[in-house]
What does this fold into?
Amino acid sequence: MQAKHVWPVVLMVGLALTRIPGVLPVNFSAVYGLLFCAGVYFSGRMAWWLPLATLAVTDLGLGVYYHFTAGTTVLQPYLVVNYAAYAGLIALGRCFRPGASWFSLLGGGIFGALLFYLLTNTAAWLFNPFGNPEYTKDFTGWILALTKGTAGYPQTWEFFRNTLLSGGLFTGLFAGAMKLTAASEPQEEPEPVPEEEAEPAEPAPEEAKA
It folds into this structure.
C-alpha cells in the first residue's frame, strides 16, 4: 500500500490515542499540529471528513468518560466553537503545498495553533458559559481571558504556551516524517516512448537518360 494511503490512517489513530486522558500533559494537545498537517497532506474530501470524524468520535468518548467521573454533560456547547476552529486549522493547511519547506510548514502549524487559542479563548470570554466574574465585557476582560483566566484554574497564558509548543512539535514531527518518507520512496521513471519506425527512404529519382 502506498504511503499516501497509509499516513492518513496512522495520523488519525495517533490523534485518537493522544486524546486519552493522561497520555499528554494538561493543555498539551496534538490536535492543532495534526489537523494542520491533515489539511496539507490529505487529498480531496478526506482532508475534511476524516479528521473531523475522528475528533467527533473521540469527543463523544471523552464526554461519556467525564460524565461518569466528573458529572459533566456529555456534549458541551463550547464544542461548536472548537469545531469551527478545527475547520479553520484544516483550511489553513490547505493553503500550503506538501512540497513546501519544513520551516514553512512548522511556521504554519504554530500560526494555526495561535489562531485556535485566540478564537477559543475569545469565545470563552464572549459567551462566558460558566459565569466567570472576571470576564467583563470590555478590553480588560478580554485581555484577562487571554492571559490569566479565572480564579481556581491554571492561568491561560500557560495554555497559550502549551498550545504553541504542542502545535509546533507535532507539526514538525509529522512534516519531517512525510519528507523523509517522500525522500526514501523510489522515483517512478517515465515509460520510454517507443521510437517511431523509420520510414523507408524514398527511392532516388532516376537520372535523366541521354
In short: The chain has one domain: 3-182. Residues 156-184 form the longest helix (29 residues). The radius of gyration is 27 Å. The CA atoms of residues 93 and 108 lie 7 Å apart.
